[in-house]
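Notes continue from the previous slide.

Worked example: a multi-chain complex. Inputs as given:
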Amino acid sequence: MALFDAVLELADDHLVLGHRLSEWCGHAPMLEEDLALPNMALDLIGTARGLYTYAGALEGAGRDEDDLAYLRGERAYRNLLLCERPNEDFAHTILRQFYFAAFMVPYWSAAARSEDETVRGIAGKAGKEMAYHVRHCGEWVVRLGDGTEESARRMKDAVEALHIYVGEMFEEAASAGIAALPSRAGMRGEWEATVDHVFGLAGLSRPVVPHPQTGGRAGVHGEALGHMLAEMQSVHRAHPGATW
Amino acid sequence: MYSQGLIGADGRSEETQAFLDAFQKRIDAEEKIEPNDPMPEGYRRTLVRQIGQHAHSEIVGMLPEGNWITRAPSLRRKAALLAKVQDEGGHGLYLYSAAETLGVSRKQMTEELLDGRAKYSSIFNYPTLSWADIGTIGWLVDGAAIMNQIPLCRCSYGPYARAMIRVCKEESFHQRQGYEIVMTLAQGTTDQKAMAQDSLNRWWWPSIMMFGPHDADSQHSDQSMAWKIKRFTNDELRQKFIDATVPQAEYLGLTIPDPDLKWNEEKNGYDHGPIDWDEFWRVVKGHGPMAKDRVKARKKAWDDGAWVRDAALAHAEKRRARKMAAE
Ligand SMILES: [Fe+2]
Ligand SMILES: [Fe+2]
C-alpha cells in the first residue's frame, strides 16, 4: 500500500495543477500563451494518467484512472497545497508552475534510476517535459520580474503568496522509506539553485517563511480545492457507471 | 474552425482593366498568388477580411468548447478536449500569420474583433449546455468547417491555401473525435442518449446555417469565385454536408430535427426543410445568445493580459539596452 499512497500523491499533484492550468485555455494574455499553458496542462494530465493507472494496479482493487480522479472527495486528495492554489493572475500561475517544475526536474531525474520499471518509464518522459516547463516559466519569471513596475510588483506579490507552500514539497509524506521513489527532502539543494538563478535575473529574492503551510498530504486542503473537484467531477458523478 | 462564406466582402477595385485581366489570367492558369505579387486592391481586401474572420473564428471558437474542459467526464476526454481547443488556437495563429502577409497586423485585427468591427463565425454565439455539445460541435461544426476549408486548400492565395492544408488535417481529426464522443453517448445510458439527441436538436440548424445564405441571396460570391478564393457556392457546400451527415446520424440512431428531410432520388441528395433566415441574420448581426459574452470574454483576456504584454516588451527593450551598453 505504501507505494500506492506515494504514487497517488504524485498523481494528485499533477492532475490538480494540470486542471488549474487548463482553466486558462482561451483566456491567456496572448495567443502564444493560449497554446503554451494548455500544452503544459496536457503534460501534467498525461503524467497524472500514467500515475493513476499505476496506482490502480498497485492497489489491485480494480480502480482505474477515472475512479481515482473522479470518485474521491477533497479529504481523500493528497496533492500539495501549492498545486491547488487558484490561478489569480499570470504571475501567480507562472510562478506556481516554475516552483513545481523546478522540484520535479531533479525528482524525475532521480526517479529515472528507480528500481521500479514503471516509475522509470514515467520519469523519463515527465522529466523532459518538466525541463521545458522550468525553461518556459523561468523565462517568464525573469520577464515579469524585470519588465515594468507593475509586473515586478505582481511578481513579488506572487512570491509572497506562494512561498509559504514551498516547504511542503520537500516533506517525505507517503514516500518516506520507499525505495522505488527518490527522497523528496533531497531535492532541496537543486530546487534552491534553480530558483536562485532565475530570481537573480528577475531581481527577486527568496523570502524567509516563518510559518510554512502544509497539510495537503493529509487531505487537509485550502477551501479552493473542494470547488475545483466539485466542478471537475460533476458530470462524471451525475452519471454513475456510465462510459464516456 | 470556420465556415459561412464571407460576411460583408468588398471586392471593388480601381486598377486598370489591363491589370485586372493580367491578374485574372494568372488565376485562371491556377497560379498561386504570393504576398509580394501585384494584386487588385479588392482581392487583397477580400482576403484580409476573410482570413481575419477565419482567424477570429478559431479564437472565439475556443470559448464554447473551453467551457467544458474543466468538466470533461474522463481524463482521456479531458486531455483530448484540451488538445483540440489548443489546436484551434494554433489555427488562429497560422491564420493571423497568413493575414499578416497582406499587410495587416495581428494587433490591428484583434482590436477590430474586440470593438466589434470584425466578424467571426456566428456558430460560436450559441451556448454549450452539456457534455454532448462537445461531441456534436466536433461532429457537425468541425464537419461543416471541413466542407468549406477543403476547397480553400486550393485557394488562389498561396499563404492561405498552405495554412488550410495544415488546418484541414487537424479539423478532420476533430470531426472524427467529435463523432466518436457522440457515438459513445448514443450507445450509452438512457440519459446519455437523451443528452446526445438534445444536443443534435440544438446544433443542427445553426450548423447548416454555417454555409451562409442561399446562393440567390449571397452578394459577394461571384467575384470570390472568379478569383478562386471560393470554389463552391454556399448551397453546394451545404448540400454536400447534409448528404454526408444524414447517414452518420442514422447510424447513431439519432434523429435530425427536420421533419422535411428526405432523400431525393432525382438530384441524388437530400432535400431539407426551410431554414430560419430571421434567426440566421439576427445571429450574424451580433444578437446570438452568447454574442455579448464571447466578445466580453475575449476583451477581458486581452485587457487582463495587457500588463503581461507590456512587461515582455519592456524586458526585451531593457535587454537590448543592456546589451548595447556592454558592447
Ligand atoms: Fe480550427
Ligand atoms: Fe477544429
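Summary box: Chain A touches chain B through 50 residues (CB under 8 Å). DSSP finds nine helices and no strands in chain A.
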